[in-house]
Prior knowledge:
Blueprint: H1 30-51, H2 60-83, H3 93-110, H4 112-140, H5 144-167, H6 173-193
Helix pairs in contact: 1-2, 1-3, 1-6, 2-5, 3-4, 4-5, 4-6
Amino acid sequence: MDTHSPSPEAPPSATIGLAPPRLDLSALPPRMQRELRASHVGETVAVALYDGVAGATTDPEVLRFAASHRRVEKRHLRLFEAVLPPDKRSAPMAFWRWSGRMMGGLPAWLGPSYFYAVVAGVEAWVDGHYARQIALARKLAPDPALLNLLEACRLDERLHARDAARLDPAPLWAARALAGLAVFLSRVGVRAARWV
């Protein structure tokens, strides 16, 4: 299998043209506020993940993939920045950005199979994470604009996972192991981001 063959252009993002919801954060339950903080951290890490690729590889397909998907993650981050004022965001943002750069840079340096496996694994997990947030929002804060934001981001993350899996459908066992570690660290990061 040739993991360097040209891939189709990324499908349009579900968040193109999406306006940030106007939320009264003080009216949201504390649990939902924590979820929004975790989502802001997650999108910060995602942008940094793709930033970390640039200095770690010269593979043109990996670089193209990273640039294309970074644009979508940057849009997600801008939406969450519009919703969540700085005083409501996680405190150790420099740590989150560093973590993202490592999560993208290390697998890109190891090779395309590692990079695509990590992206596919993490983005598939993020798809499920957003699904759980949507279910919680429907129960605690059923604001249609908030639900639309979460669902649009979820659809984009699902496409990112599929794009990566399509480029390397049978990753090396070591790449799968690294992807498993990245998913575990993502779970830990989300739990921490809800509180710090």
